[in-house]
């Protein structure tokens, strides 16, 4: 009986591993027919739209390399609320921008600068939703994340703050998988997209309980590397002491790679060095996502597959054709 049970577990593991490999292959094949590669070719007078975006983003990146993380976060927050429609860019007290999860989103100045350059070349031709996608792609490529082709042809729309429901840093993995599935994104897409944390930082409040009172145990999260626990405690005090928080924590705990878009984040998860609970749980508390993390950490094609996951996310619930509008200013509806 013991031998039969052992074989059953081995066979089950092989089946699931095979499923992961299949998912990795399928993730590269999905695309939205409504969007097109090179949508703006010949549509902005003599201006090359994508080259203009790249030039403006490069100027911003040279002054502030953290715009990579800022734009990745902006695109994720935009696409996960009523689709990739640039609604996060709209000003106003009831706008997405002013919903609590979005108050710390940055990078609006980058989008504004690109929009200004493009409006000077061709008025109301390029959507703000497409600018987010192209600018994020370019920032990723400047951070050694590789250049991936972006589909364009999105239209702009609006969504109120009340519609903002984004995954929390401690969301259970099964719930996260369900949320991504509702956006037509696979488990592989999810694990790659969370890999955008490779250039991100977070603050004490979002991981404090993992250091001192994980799930009300009075102890640290056992999945967290003890060296990391001790390191983070130096800048994130026990809430019972009210000590000062001195610095944010890198989500990629490899200092040499904290500003590089690569698979270092996934490698760190395998060592128990995930700072946010959702990150570490990918590797430690879900069998399928754990296999995907291990697979990504061992692969050498991260750039291409991360880029494909970004393309897949960029096709979530998009407006095209005559739907929505092309804004004059990304901060206000026409």
UniProtKB/TrEMBL annotation:
<feature type="disulfide bond">
    <location>
        <begin position="128"/>
        <end position="330"/>
    </location>
</feature>
<feature type="binding site">
    <location>
        <position position="83"/>
    </location>
    <ligand>
        <name>Ca(2+) 1</name>
    </ligand>
</feature>
<feature type="signal peptide">
    <location>
        <begin position="1"/>
        <end position="33"/>
    </location>
</feature>
<dbReference type="GO" id="GO:0020037">
    <property type="term" value="F:heme binding"/>
</dbReference>
<keyword id="KW-0408">Iron</keyword>
<dbReference type="GO" id="GO:0006979">
    <property type="term" value="P:response to oxidative stress"/>
</dbReference>
<dbReference type="InterPro" id="IPR033905">
    <property type="entry name" value="Secretory_peroxidase"/>
</dbReference>
<keyword id="KW-0349">Heme</keyword>
<comment type="similarity">
    <text>Belongs to the peroxidase family. Ascorbate peroxidase subfamily.</text>
</comment>
<feature type="binding site">
    <location>
        <position position="252"/>
    </location>
    <ligand>
        <name>Ca(2+) 2</name>
    </ligand>
</feature>
<dbReference type="InterPro" id="IPR019794">
    <property type="entry name" value="Peroxidases_AS"/>
</dbReference>
<dbReference type="InterPro" id="IPR002016">
    <property type="entry name" value="Haem_peroxidase"/>
</dbReference>
<keyword id="KW-0575">Peroxidase</keyword>
<dbReference type="InterPro" id="IPR019793">
    <property type="entry name" value="Peroxidases_heam-ligand_BS"/>
</dbReference>
<feature type="disulfide bond">
    <location>
        <begin position="204"/>
        <end position="236"/>
    </location>
</feature>
<keyword id="KW-0964">Secreted</keyword>
<feature type="binding site">
    <location>
        <position position="96"/>
    </location>
    <ligand>
        <name>Ca(2+) 1</name>
    </ligand>
</feature>
<keyword id="KW-0479">Metal-binding</keyword>
<keyword id="KW-0106">Calcium</keyword>
<feature type="binding site">
    <location>
        <position position="85"/>
    </location>
    <ligand>
        <name>Ca(2+) 1</name>
    </ligand>
</feature>
<dbReference type="GO" id="GO:0046872">
    <property type="term" value="F:metal ion binding"/>
</dbReference>
<keyword id="KW-0560">Oxidoreductase</keyword>
<dbReference type="GO" id="GO:0042744">
    <property type="term" value="P:hydrogen peroxide catabolic process"/>
</dbReference>
<dbReference type="GO" id="GO:0005576">
    <property type="term" value="C:extracellular region"/>
</dbReference>
<feature type="domain" description="Plant heme peroxidase family profile">
    <location>
        <begin position="34"/>
        <end position="334"/>
    </location>
</feature>
<feature type="disulfide bond">
    <location>
        <begin position="44"/>
        <end position="122"/>
    </location>
</feature>
<comment type="similarity">
    <text>Belongs to the peroxidase family. Classical plant (class III) peroxidase subfamily.</text>
</comment>
<feature type="binding site">
    <location>
        <position position="78"/>
    </location>
    <ligand>
        <name>Ca(2+) 1</name>
    </ligand>
</feature>
<feature type="active site" description="Proton acceptor">
    <location>
        <position position="77"/>
    </location>
</feature>
<feature type="binding site">
    <location>
        <position position="81"/>
    </location>
    <ligand>
        <name>Ca(2+) 1</name>
    </ligand>
</feature>
<protein>
    <recommendedName>
        <fullName>Peroxidase</fullName>
        <ecNumber>1.11.1.7</ecNumber>
    </recommendedName>
</protein>
<feature type="disulfide bond">
    <location>
        <begin position="79"/>
        <end position="84"/>
    </location>
</feature>
<feature type="binding site">
    <location>
        <position position="262"/>
    </location>
    <ligand>
        <name>Ca(2+) 2</name>
    </ligand>
</feature>
<dbReference type="Pfam" id="PF00141">
    <property type="entry name" value="peroxidase"/>
</dbReference>
<comment type="function">
    <text>Removal of H(2)O(2), oxidation of toxic reductants, biosynthesis and degradation of lignin, suberization, auxin catabolism, response to environmental stresses such as wounding, pathogen attack and oxidative stress. These functions might be dependent on each isozyme/isoform in each plant tissue.</text>
</comment>
<keyword id="KW-1015">Disulfide bond</keyword>
<feature type="site" description="Transition state stabilizer">
    <location>
        <position position="73"/>
    </location>
</feature>
<feature type="binding site">
    <location>
        <position position="87"/>
    </location>
    <ligand>
        <name>Ca(2+) 1</name>
    </ligand>
</feature>
<dbReference type="InterPro" id="IPR010255">
    <property type="entry name" value="Haem_peroxidase_sf"/>
</dbReference>
<feature type="binding site" description="axial binding residue">
    <location>
        <position position="197"/>
    </location>
    <ligand>
        <name>heme b</name>
    </ligand>
</feature>
<keyword id="KW-0376">Hydrogen peroxide</keyword>
<keyword id="KW-0732">Signal</keyword>
């Amino acid at each position: 009986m013991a031998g039969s049970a052992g074989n059953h577990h081995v066979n089950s593991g092989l089946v699931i591993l095979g499923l992961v490999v299949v998912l990795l292959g399928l993730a590269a094949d999905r695309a939205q027919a409504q969007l097109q590669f090179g949508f703006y070719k010949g549509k902005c007078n003599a201006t090359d739209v994508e080259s203009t975006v790249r030039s403006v983003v490069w100027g911003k990146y040279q002054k502030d390399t953290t715009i990579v993380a800022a734009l990745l976060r902006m695109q994720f927050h935009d696409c996960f609320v009523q689709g990739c429609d640039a609604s996060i860019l709209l000003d106003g007290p009831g706008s997405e921008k002013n919903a609590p999860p979005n108050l710390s989103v940055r990078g609006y100045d980058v989008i504004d600068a690109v929009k200004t350059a493009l409006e000077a070349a061709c008025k109301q031709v390029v959507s703000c939703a497409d600018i987010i996608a192209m600018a994020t792609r370019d920032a990723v490529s400047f951070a050694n994340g590789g250049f991936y082709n972006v589909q364009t042809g999105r239209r702009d729309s609006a969504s109120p703050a009340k519609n903002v429901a984004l995954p929390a840093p401690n969301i259970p993995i099964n719930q996260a998988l369900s949320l991504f599935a509702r956006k037509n994104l696979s488990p592989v897409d999810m694990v790659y997209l969370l890999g955008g944390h490779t250039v991100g930082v977070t603050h004490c409040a979002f991981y404090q309980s993992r250091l001192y009172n994980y799930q009300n145990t009075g102890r640290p999260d056992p999945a967290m590397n003890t060296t990391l626990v001790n390191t983070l405690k130096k800048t994130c005090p026990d809430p019972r002491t009210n000590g000062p928080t001195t610095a944010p924590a890198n989500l990629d705990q490899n200092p040499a790679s904290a500003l590089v878009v690569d698979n270092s984040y996934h490698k760190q998860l395998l060592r128990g060095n995930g700072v946010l609970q959702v990150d570490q749980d990918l590797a430690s508390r879900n069998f399928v996502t754990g296999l995907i993390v291990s697979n990504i950490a061992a692969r050498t094609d991260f750039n291409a597959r991360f880029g494909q996951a970004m393309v897949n996310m960029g096709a979530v619930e998009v407006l095209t054709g005559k739907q929505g509008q092309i804004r004059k200013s990304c901060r206000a509806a026409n």
